[in-house]
Amino acid sequence: MLTFEPITAENAGRLKPYYENCNYRLCEYAVGTKVMWDDHLKSSFAEVAGCLVVLNRVEEGIFFDMPVPGENGDVDAALTAIEEYCTKKGMHPEIWVVPAEQTARLCSRYSRVTITNERIWRDYLYRAADMAAFAGRRYSGQRNHINKFRKLYPQARFTELTMADADRIEAFWRRYEVEFQKTSPMALWELETAKGMFRLLDRGWFCAGGLEDEGRLLALCLAEKCGDTLVIHAEKALYSCPGAYPTLVQAFAARFGAECRWINREDDAQDKGLRTSKLQYLPAELGSKIHFAVGSELDDLDAVPALKTERLVLDELTEDDKAAYNALCLDDERNRWWGYDYREDLQGEWTEDYFLEVARRDFDDRLAVNFAVRLEGRLIGEAVLYNLDWRGGAELGCRIAPAYAGHGYGTEAFAAAAEWALYRLGLDRVVAKCYKENQASFRMLSSCMRRSGQDEIFFYFIKTV
Length: 465
Hints:
By secondary structure, the protein is an alpha+beta fold. The chain is 34% helix and 27% strand. The radius of gyration is 29 Å and the shape is elongated.
């Protein structure tokens, strides 16, 4: 299973090889964004199948970035790792800030998914060549502002910035704060994080530059090259210097955007002033950040259904089943073949309600369906559809109490649950496995399904429509 490590300023360099060749064009696929927004995103990362996988923990829940492939990276394998991680953790996969170019891949992968694409989070994408030239009538306003700046500051020039310029950068921040008018917590926080980013110039992740006049900085900008996109992380100019912003935008694009096709000036954070400003530079497009909330066929169920066979009924577990169900779940000999030890997940003291509550919670979250297997009304076992793969498949298991073993009840219950899952619920496939030493399970599964493989521990089976 994926193991995640929190992203910090100390280890963020491990993300750079992935992002520097990433053409997703969105600002979230950049080292600077992960470091700058650490307090909000609480991002962590893992590497699998030659891809970078990022998990974000925000107030709304847990969301994954689209996997970013390195050289020979397998995005589909990385998505499978995300799905398996979510199944083990008991949560639905949610992949956010998916670039529009990747939506076809996810739409074809998932049959049950909710998609949102909100305007407020879209990035402003400009053609780098347009920003470097400001050519044509449509950019006459920007050129006029630049001409005004040049008249006021004829000696001003664009200069690249490094850590050697730390004192001049800090002096700029002191002058900038004197003129800074915004008082909202978000604006104050953004200013502090922007200052912090310039203190990381020695990491080699960013390019930076500013407008200099008579030895002092009037404006500065910090960005990161990600594939064919130059992502602008911080862009500030003194309010007392008319025309400094468009002058900085053009000069920065000319110096650092020559090898890029796009310049991403990030979203507008729902700020009306920022939106107006970003639109005035005439974005070529707004980069969609599409959110995929993955569901499953279980989402269609209102309740655990009742299934009938020649001798059995499979239906919902009830309070009256508690004693028999606890005996089944606490049978260590049976559980050895079930492959699960409840003690590994138990939090606090065990109570007689524990197993029933777990089964009900898993169904409420649409992560599993636990069927009570009944003979003449008595609970004699259970069949469980679980381990969703989020792509039309799930695993099926069945266990029968020792007193009722050897009469074919397990085979009968398993076959009924598998038929229901495929032909009523609508799954594409049902899979199962058994320990190689468990001959009874091997015979049962062989009678209902076909072999699909084996490893050192298990035989694997599959049943498809």
